[in-house]
């Protein structure tokens, strides 16, 4: 279970990175592209966008792995939560690819 939390944490960061770089690519390649997230819209076409998405995701994943080590009984909850977030980002990425 401990390794599963690590793997899901890495998958969470990878999903954030994929979303960030897909958005960066779309902002530079597609005419009329608009970021739908109003918090990220001002920086959607800049290199700050991947940093704003990836660094917090990495910190959250690192924190969850540390919490899982400290409180082993919470690992199953973390696995379910991380899996749900990864499924959500899979839907987001699929939707983004459909729009392209």
Write a structural description.
The protein has helices spanning about 1-30, 50-70, 75-100. With about 100 residues, it is mainly α. The protein has one domain (about 1-100). α1 (about 1-30) runs parallel beside α3. The termini are far apart.
Largest sheet: none
Radius of gyration: 15 Å
How do the helices and strands follow one another from N- to C-terminus?
HHH
Number of structural domains:
1
Quaternary structure classification: single chain
What is the count of β-strands?
Answer: 0
First-last Cα distance: 37 Å
Mean pLDDT: 88
Essential attributes:
76% helix, mainly alpha
Topology:
Blueprint: H1 2-29, H2 48-70, H3 75-99
Helix pairs in contact: 1-2, 1-3
Give a concise summary.
By secondary structure, this protein is mainly α. The protein has helices at residues 2-29, 48-70, 75-99.
